[in-house]
């Protein structure tokens, strides 16, 4: 019997689920370990040095414990900082999640693109370099949202989240006159993995229609390419859910669709 690959997906919280579900669809035979560093959530409120000092050793502990074949850092706030540190420290292959500025700018017709991320992500030198290298003449508006990741987390946990609170964070993405569809923003990059959890609300609340760019399918393709051809005999029961706070989690049912119908233990 061939062993199924072990894929570890890491985020500060539940946002990485939006990346996980695409990877599960692409590699159903894999064994999945999802780690939410909820003890340190939200990463967007921490300084750069703090995040590096937190994530690099924690990933080392997870490698020792789970021996993953591949690790996905399903968090823009961390990936825009830690990837080079992780690759220098560990041999395990890593895939990161960074703002999809290049495809968004390639696609925009009005040449006005907004990047909606955490405050940390939009302040990063990494993000500014992506704009310098790949904006292709587009005007890129950086929107750092302090609260949306927590609102998404709350909504996924079954709580009521107010439209007004979501719209307050979303509104700065919409630049230009609503009546001028030749020059207003037409593309918004979802630069935080939590945000696709609120996509239905975003679409409903947006002052005009835009393309929302979610990099999760591209990340799943990259993971699949790195793993190579499918191997293993399937691991339909293989899904683990770890919270660094060690809190007992009661979300198994809610999270099942993200794990392709498996119950995360
Ligand atoms: N999901 C994370 C991201 O992609 C960040 C949320 C947070 O912890 O602030 O940036």
Describe this structure in words.
There is one protein chain. This protein has 265 residues and is α/β, with parallel strands linked by helices. It has two domains: 6-97 and 217-259, 3-Layer(aba) Sandwich (Rossmann fold), CATH 3.40.50.1860; 101-214, Rossmann fold (3-Layer(aba) Sandwich), CATH 3.40.50. The chain is 40% helix and 17% strand. The protein has eleven helices and nine strands. It has helices at residues 17-26, 48-66, 76-89, 101-107, 119-123, 125-134, 148-156, 163-170, 199-205, 216-227, 252-255; strands at residues 6-11, 31-36, 70-73, 94-95, 112-118, 139-145, 187-190, 211-213, 239-243. The strands form two sheets. The protein has a five-stranded parallel β-sheet with strand order 4-3-1-2-9. A four-stranded parallel β-sheet has the order 6-5-7-8. Strand 7 (187-190), helix 9 (199-205) and strand 8 (211-213) form a beta-alpha-beta unit. Helix 2 crosses helix 3 (76-89) and helix 4 (101-107) packs parallel to helix 6 (125-134). The longest helix is centred in the N-terminal third of the chain and has 19 residues, at 48-66. The chain starts with 5 loop residues before the first strand and ends in a 10-residue tail after the last helix. The model has no long low-confidence stretch (mean pLDDT 94). Bound molecules: D-glutamic acid. The site of D-glutamic acid has 17 residues, from helix 3.
The number of distinct structural domains comes to 2
Q: Do you know the CATH topology of the largest domain?
A: Rossmann fold
CATH top level label of the largest domain: Alpha Beta
Broad shape: globular
Ligand kinds: D-glutamic acid
For the sheet with most strands, the description reads: 5 strands, parallel
Q: Which stretches are low in confidence, meaning pLDDT under 50 for 5 or more residues running?
A: none
Mean pLDDT: 94
Name the CATH architecture of the largest domain. Answer: 3-Layer(aba) Sandwich
Give the helix level as a range of percent. 25-40%
Number of strands: 9
The N- and C-terminal alpha carbons lie at a distance of: 24 Å
Q: What would you report as the Rg, rounded to the nearest angstrom?
A: 18 Å
Strand content: 15-25%
Total of helices: 11
Which structural class fits the helix and strand makeup?
Answer: alpha/beta
Write the H/E string, N to C. Answer: EHEHEHEHEHHEHHEHEHEH
* Biggest β-sheet: strands ordered side by side in the sheet: 4-3-1-2-9
